[in-house]
Amino acid sequence: MTQENIDWLFKLKNEVPMFLDKLKGEKQSGFFHYSLTGDLYTQDKNWGLGNTVFAVKIYYTLDMLDSLPEVEREDMVNFIKSFPREDGSIFDPLVNNKASFRNKAGSIINLDFSNFLGEKTKRAEARQAFSALMLMNSTPKRPYLKIPCTSEEVEKYLRSLNWKKPWAAGAHFSTLLFFLHVNKKQFNVCENAEELIEYVIDWVNKLQSPDDGSWYVGHNVSVHEKINGAMKVITGLSAVDKLNFRYPEKLIDLCLSVDKDEHACDSVDKIYVLHYANKLTGGNYRYNEIEDFCYKQLEAYKEHYFPDIGGFSFYKHRANQYYYGAKITKGLDEPDIHGTVLFLWSIAMISQILNIDKDLGFKEFIT
Hints:
mainly alpha; two-stranded antiparallel ribbon; 15 helices; 4 strands
C-alpha cells in the first residue's frame, strides 16, 4: 500500500468540518441534523440528542473541539443537558417513542422484557451523552442512578443479560462499568464502586473463551456476534482503565478470520478489538496481516466517503435509517453523522496501528 492510497485521510480535517457546518440547525443552537437532506423530523420536534453527541465526538476526533468558539461549545453542552430526567437518564424522547413498537415486539419475540419500555436504550443513550459532556469538560446535572450498586444486585443484573447474544450483553456490561466509575468520580455516588468494578470484571472473565478470546455462552454464536460482543466488553474495560484482558492472540485470529462487514458498526468493532489486542501483544503477533487488513479497511471506508460533502455514509451509498430502533431518515444516497463518527473513530485507531497517528493528528475518544 503506497502513501498515495492514504493521502485522502489527510484531507479529512479540512473537509469533515464543512459537513458538520451543513448539519447545524438553523433555528436551534446546538442541534445537528442526522443526515444531509433525508431526516424525517425537523429540529422543532424536540429530538437530536444523539446527533449532537456524535458531533462532539467528531470534533474531538479531529482534535478541533478545544479550538471551537466558546459559544458553540456552550450551545452543544446546553443542548445535551436539555434532555435529562430526575433519575439521571438522558435520552431522546422522539427516538424512545418511535422505537416503542419495535422494542415491545422484540421483547415478546425474544421473551426478553428488559427493554420492553426502552430502558436499555435509555441507559445506552445516557452513557453516550455523559461521555460527550466529559469530552467537553462538563459535568452532567446529576448521576445516573438506574444501575445496581451492591454485589448482589450486580450479579443479578449480569445474570439477567443474554450472553448467548454477546453484542447486546457486552454493551450493557460495558455501560454498567462506565456508570459505576463515572458516578463515583463525578458525584461520589456508590462508595464501593471500585470493589464492584473488580467484581464485575471477574464475573465476566469467567465467560471468556480460551478458544477465540471472546466473552459469551453457548455453541451457536456467530463470528460477528463474538467480535462485536468482545468490542463491547473491551469498551467497558477501557472506561475503567483495566485493559489487561486474556487471549489477545485468539481475538486477533478471530478478527482476521472475517473479511466482509455489513455496515459501519461491524467494521469499527473489528478494528477496535484488533487495536487493543495488538497493543497487548506489543505488535508482535500477525502484525503484517493486521497492517494489510487495516489498509484494506481504509480502501473500503473510502467507498463510504463523499469528498465533495465531507461526510461518510453508514452503509455504502446509503445513509442509516434507524437509530436505536427508531426510523429517522429516508436512507438516501448521502452521508450521515452516525457513519461519519464511526468511520473517523476507526481511522483514529487504524492510524495508531499503522503508526501514522502523529502525522494524521486524530484523537481516539473513550466512549
